[in-house]
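can u do me a favor
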């Protein structure tokens, strides 16, 4: 182990951000953006370009930023004060093992692992803990498998905490797992999903970095490779090393020495390939409030863009219905190009309908009050994807039209099963041809006063319980199809 890693494991050596300000700067040109980027320690905005850009600025360079004359607003005057407040609160928080509510605050790696065991033990007939493999430093990368679908059932994968400092993604992933567990047998919708599917939730894909963010550097993002770290979400094999990934080990987006050079990304790849039955994947990150779909490495449209976009819109609408929050659905590269990311690999190489959800917040350090809202809105999104996967369950023993592609050259059938409604989407094959294009009447009237969307979500105060809502009604999917009709001619 390098000296840097030894120091990083010691809380006394924790990096501090005293006087570091989080500033929103208004830039109007690439030249102005370059000036701001040169001054800032780190750019936090996910779409740096003309408009508002959030940056972290060291105290010694704040005057330099002011001297540029660019309009700016100091949003957080002292990042360390927020970090210190978080640490003090966590130190004083009730232990969930002695009665404290588990989702009342953020939890460290050991608490997450303990909770996974407890969740599996609470419902052994439908859940078990799985061990995908070990991190660079030998920590277990574990998850929860939920379902009664059996061999050959469509499987859905939910993952979180590829970036260490994104604690809200950790808690949201755990809440998704809990929602499927607590809803089984008490909610008909969830019970049907669990009976017919396999659901896998891996809440901490970057355990080493997560530990560093708790003990040594609250804003640590990468794994701990040689003390500088690799951005795991630039280390996957599809389009590795392209736009939005850096070859400099000290950059936050360093892609590593080669695709899957890091055990954390390789463990996930091997698990998915060995399993062979995953049809959909959602990876949780923070923060930006967005639903992203492939491609992320290029501005070109993905072969299944109509279905990807429609499903992403479905998640966005479910989120809005649950809490009123706006999570626009966009192609990943429209946020910023990011080559070697897990969603492009999951879609392009593993044959899954794949998405990244950027969660709520204005910082990586957020109050625990945000956990309930993030859980509510993203359980809603998770159910939309699970509903789509449920539509891939064969209706007859010899029905082979609705499953995955067994990870061959074709993607899984991207059409949404909503009880017989023709979705009108077009799947574009790799050779540029289209197949299965259906005709949607753009002028078809919708109900003047349709039934309300399903009720919102809230935390069930007992178990942890992320409450569950029924699936979206058929008219709602039809509305999305009409909106998405423009994709049918591409």
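np, heres the sequence
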């Amino acid at each position: 182990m390098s000296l840097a890693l030894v120091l990083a494991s010691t809380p006394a050596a924790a990096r501090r951000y005293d006087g570091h300000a989080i500033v929103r700067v208004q830039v109007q040109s690439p030249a102005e953006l370059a000036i701001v980027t040169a001054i800032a320690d780190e750019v936090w905005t996910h779409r740096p370009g003309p408009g508002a850009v959030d940056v972290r600025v060291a105290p010694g360079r704040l005057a330099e930023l002011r001297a540029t004359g660019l309009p700016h607003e100091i949003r957080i005057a002292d990042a360390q004060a927020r970090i210190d407040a978080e640490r003090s609160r966590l130190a004083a928080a009730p232990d969930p093992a002695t009665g404290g509510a588990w989702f009342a605050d953020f939890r460290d790696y050991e608490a997450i692992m303990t909770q996974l065991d407890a969740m599996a033990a609470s419902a052994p007939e439908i859940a078990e803990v799985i061990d995908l493999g070990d991190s660079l430093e030998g920590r277990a990368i574990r998850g929860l498998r939920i379902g009664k679908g059996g061999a050959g059932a469509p499987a859905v994968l939910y993952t979180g905490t590829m970036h260490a400092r994104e604690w809200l993604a950790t808690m949201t992933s755990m809440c998704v797992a809990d929602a499927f567990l607590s809803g089984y047998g008490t909610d008909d919708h969830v019970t049907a999903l669990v009976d017919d599917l396999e659901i896998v939730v891996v809440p901490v894909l970057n355990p080493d970095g997560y530990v560093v963010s708790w003990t040594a550097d609250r804003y640590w993002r990468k794994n701990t490779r040689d003390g500088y770290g690799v951005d795991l979400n630039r280390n996957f094999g599809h389009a590795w090393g392209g736009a939005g990934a850096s070859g400099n080990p000290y950059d936050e987006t360093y892609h590593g020495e080669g695709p899957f050079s890091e055990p954390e990304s390789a463990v996930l790849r091997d698990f998915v390939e060995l399993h062979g039955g995953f049809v959909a994947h959602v990876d949780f990150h923070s923060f930006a409030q967005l639903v992203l779909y492939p491609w992320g490495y290029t501005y070109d449209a993905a072969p299944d863009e109509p279905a990807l976009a429609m499903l992403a819109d479905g998640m966005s609408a479910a989120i809005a219905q649950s809490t009123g929050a706006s999570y626009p659905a966009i192609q990943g590269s429209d946020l910023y190009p990011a080559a070697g990311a897990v969603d492009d690999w999951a879609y392009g190489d593993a044959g899954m309908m794949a998405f990244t959800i950027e969660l709520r917040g204005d910082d990586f350090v957020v109050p625990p009050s945000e956990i309930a809202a993030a859980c509510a809105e993203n359980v809603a999104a998770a159910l939309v994807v699970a509903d789509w996967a449920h539509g891939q369950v064969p209706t007859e023993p010899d029905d082979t039209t609705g499953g995955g592609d067994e990870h061959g050259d074709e993607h899984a059938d991207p059409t949404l099963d909503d009880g017989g409604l023709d979705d009108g989407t077009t799947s574009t094959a790799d050779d540029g041809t289209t197949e299965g294009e259906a005709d949607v009447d753009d002028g078809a009237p919708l109900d003047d006063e349709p039934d309300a969307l399903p009720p919102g979500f809230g935390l069930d105060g007992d178990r942890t319980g992320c409450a569950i809502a029924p699936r979206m009604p058929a008219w709602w999917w039809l509305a999305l199809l009409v909106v998405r009709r423009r994709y049918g001619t591409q």
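The chain has two domains: 19-77, 85-390. hope that helps!!
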